[in-house]
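We modelled the chain as a single entity of 656 amino acids. Its sequence is:
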Amino acid sequence: MFAFTSFGCKVHDSINDGRGPPQFIINGQVYHRIGSLLPGIGENPRFAQLYIYDTQHEVVNRQGIFGQTTEIDKELIVGLMQMIDEHNVIAQLFRRAREFYEDHPSQEFCLRLFSQRVHDPRIYNYPSCDEVAALIVGDFESSDCGRDIIVQSTSGQLQRIYETHALYLPLQYPLLFPYGEDGYQLNIPYRGVQVTYVRGRRTRMSLREFVNFRLQMREDEGSIIHKARRLFQQFVVDCFASIESQRLFEIRKKQSTIRGEFLNGIEEAMQRGDVEASSIGTRVILPSSFTGGKCYMFNNCQDAMAICKHYGYPDLFLTITCNPNWPEFQRYTRREGIPIADRPDISCRVFHAKLKCLLTDLKGGTFFGPLNAGMYTIEFQKRGLPHAHFLLWLERRNILQNVELVDELICAELPNPARFPNLYRMVTKYMIHGPCGRIRPSSPCMKDGKCSKFYPKQFVNETSFDDDGYPVYKRRDMGITVKLCGTDIDNRFVVPYNPLLLMKYQAHINLEFCNKSNVIKYLFKYVNKGPDRLTATVDQSTSGCQESQILDEIKQYYDCRYLSPSESMWRIFAFDIHHRWPAVQRLTFHLPSQQYVVFDDSDIVSSVFVQNRDLMTMFTAWMLANRRYAEGRCLTYVEYPSKFVYDIESREWMPR
């Protein structure tokens, strides 16, 4: 209602059905647009309805972003408008523009909102009106606005606002920035850095770092943003969508200059007489450093396979889910009165701290003994809470080769409430599936009248494995039950768990045994699929009389993006999405003259060939190192990183 701009995106609100806390989740690309100061004849205002057009403060029922139609408190709205009119610089500027229109209805004019500021943007004082905007009267079509915003008096066109504009955030969230404070803008220097460029190091703040800075909790600052509840969810999702949009914009901007081709392809082009580098090669779209891209997921999967090749198949598959009832969350909820679902920053911080503690325990051999290797991937539930999937390689390879040892680590039964009351309380609270089936047909896991997780299981007296290699855990009919949904639930609904893990971390922690079967392929695909889904299409583009096929991964990336508040907050804090140990060295190899070369469109083909013809690659440097170091000649190329390290700058292998 109070926004000066329109928030455009596809909101995924099907999960807000009342069975859980509401979440603001989007699909696809996010954009913000601003229209004219006044609507045309017979048209509704496109933005700033209460500030610019509705002088009578008319308030009607509105449907919110969560699909709920509510009755608006008119006195509250009027009070908020008076407060913003008095303190918000942007609102005052629009009021002045409206007053100018009332005094000069036939005069053409526009309001220009400046992106750059004269004073240091790190000093958060009240912005000066002269620095924020200027009223332009007369011929303003020829003015070069750059990334500034031009708001005309009456126009049928919408103008997109860049996420790097200083007024991007205060225009969309005037209640979160009541004074119209500047948001992020380009070229904000780091504190104490005077130079504009340092080789190999950034000297200017990125958009992610700025948002991260703004979202920190400070004892001496009463933050309005953290108390906005559902609007805070939209704010963090919007901020990370802007961060990712800026990254993709920079990647796409560089596509016009970067090309790649094999060295022998460059030589053939030179022999044909091609001079310009823009006539050969293919575009490089999403790099492997972009989280969720095609190369990112492929490299992670290959790294996982390298660990599997060295240590064998993984032994354990573990899933831990963030628990909204953790004491850290309960203390905050009781103190502030805000549900933890409306504070994804706190849920991500606490879960990240628990995850680091769990990693320390696993690497220290607290629960399963010494480990050779491990990895995890973070995913996010539709209800907003994060969870992690682990693959673990035990040091003693034969530890789980008989069912007795499996039963020592994994349990799928209700404990005796008389002997283990605390464990019984934890299992019945966190490790019961459903209930589903005939007991509750409306359970989310039910599909076509059956449970998609194959619950309830069957009673069995001992652990075994089925024909497909899946474990069948011991579930005895001992008469121990728990009352849920008016029905007695027994061992058939218990999710496999480890008692020590469950008692320490008090959350849903599912532990499964892995064996040498087709389940391994599924687990690798599941744990390394990444947080985003990406689809690549092949488009036809015509340049002159030549047609080339361009793989545009960015175009379809937006359509497959699924952003929730927790994932946005996790990525803003720059927490790891994927982690593995030990480290994996990616080795490149090629046939003679088949190394891949990256160059610019403006380069000369002959220069590119000469510069890369005799340039050492990782593979050719390994051959040269075998001549120098006798101790490496007994090692294969794959074994070489265990004794030698590759220096990227000097392009040579050196002993560790």
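As a brief sanity check on the tokenised model: The chain has two domains: 6-247, 294-527. The first strand starts at residue 6 and ends at 11.
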